[in-house]
Predict the 3D structure of the following.
Amino acid sequence: MIKTITLDGLTSVTVKESPFDMARFCWIYNHSEGDVFASCVNADCTENADDVLRVPAGEPRMLDTESFETLYLNGSGTVEIITSAFAVCPFKRASKGGDNTEYGENIFNFNAFRTKLSALSQPVANGNITWLDNGFTLTASSADCYTWFGEGTAPYFEVEKNTAYEISCDVSGDTGHIYIFFDYPPVGEPFIYYKNTNTKFTFTTLSSTQKITLRFGVQGMGNSCTYSNIKIRKIL
């Protein structure tokens, strides 16, 4: 579903018109000049109330609408809504005369990531890892090589709920994927992934997300890829 809504106060929007609709995530882009507030639970949708998400001007935000049919919006101006089966942001932020995006601190602690993985008997599946000063190189011994991420042994990073983050890194070598798992384990929790040919990627945590786990990979037997200067930063 794709809709453009003009707001003048409290508005409700049907985001699921069929029980067979598989679109779990509702993305909202605020084209107005002020904050807009959104909720799938709180019909009053007032600022600072429980279960109400603030969507800043000129920014996208996401709500997990898996169990809900109605989206409540409060504010003025125009918003664009896209529902999707994926937690990948479908919007590209508008340019404001240069990249003036403001970020929080980098929450990716490379030393903690290296220490946690190095302590495992198998830090990498289907290959090996060579640690560098601020990164690592993966070399595949089969079709899909990746850093270990399961059973609660992989390093995780605490995040805020319903919040947009940007992950960025320097990548050289062969193609692979970077996976972002929300509150993993257990198996079955939501995750998203993207090709490492994208050096920057934006994602939004769910209403239940408290931590994320990353999986870095390279594809193709004998191929290798180097990841360095990894950052995960909150978009302010």
About this structure: The longest strand covers residues 70-84.
